[in-house]
Amino acid sequence: MTQPLVLGIESTCDETGVALVRGHDLLVDRTATSMDQYARYGGIIPEIASRAHLESFLPTLDSALDEAGVGLDEIDAVAVAAGPGLVGSLTVGICAAKALASSIGAPLYGVNHVIGHLAVDAVAEGPLPQRFIGLVVSGGHSNILLVEDLATDVRELGGTLDDAAGEAFDKVGRLLDLPYPGGPHVDRLSQQGDRSAIRFPRGLAAGKDKDRHKYDFSFSGLKTAVARYVEGARERGERIDAADVCAGFSEAVNDSLTAKAVRAALDTGCGTIVVGGGFSANSRLRALIGERAAAAGLSVRMPPLRFCTDNGAQIAAMGSALVRAGVAPSDWDFSPDSGMPLTQTWMAPAGS
Ligand code: KG4
Ligand code: ZN
Question: Which among 27, 110, 156, 274 has the fewest CB atoms less than 10 Å away?
């Protein structure tokens, strides 16, 4: 029997993503972004992002349907990001999805876009194990999740007490006068630096904190240490080796992320770690998690780079997992949830 065709719509931040997934097969994935409009502001302007979604949605949908050679009447279910994200951006995608789903008579699933960052690997590289440790790292999240079932049972083992990994990278980028968003620039510079030239502190890695916050992260102390180092050197008129600063900083962030993800997998008896989110494009994270997981006898799944940033495929993949799990679609009146908990995989209908 052919699997249902699921349309995924992503509009949590600056990317308008539209994708089609059938089972575990990705038919098409189209993205438009308004990121190039924010460099001069040094951050995303929500009103510009919402307007850009409004302008990009229909052209992106049309080109995705064209490329896949699919008509609207062939779509069996629609999935849309319901959160976490910017309320205005989410609202545009959700309105579009509701209109579309109701006009073609298809069920609608409001899905968690962060869990989608893990789900996308199933359509990019093949089915995921039933049970695994999820490491979601982005501009807004740094969490370790115990995934018992991607569609219906996600548990939060830990998260960041302050900044997210991507956010910390963006702030260090700003400190070093790098263009926005700083993450990819800090990553690029770090590859030219010496990882052991400057040793920056690891948060929650010692004493009582180590036990109390076994799977949690804290990057604000690290960020302050980097700021002190840079400002101190500037005041003394010393030359700063930005590559070494980035390499030392990146090592501190990725040491914490990878050590705790591996610990969580061993503690819970999961054989696989799945990494996802914009920050999973980070070169040092990809290398270090690979090394440490292999040393611990674990396997790692990481989406190819083009699926790390927000995309429609992650939403369609999540929709496809929910349809396969046989859960009920969302009610028509659900709203965006900018702080959607990671344990909530989709907007379950009232009373379910
Ligand atoms: O998941 P995402 O596209 O958006 C959300 O935050 O939901 O993640 C974007 C974040 C930004 O903070 C960006 O700087 C960071 O991911 N990022 C990176 C890299 N590529 C993107 N950070 C470090 N190294 C990278 N290569
Ligand atoms: Zn994201």
Answer: 156
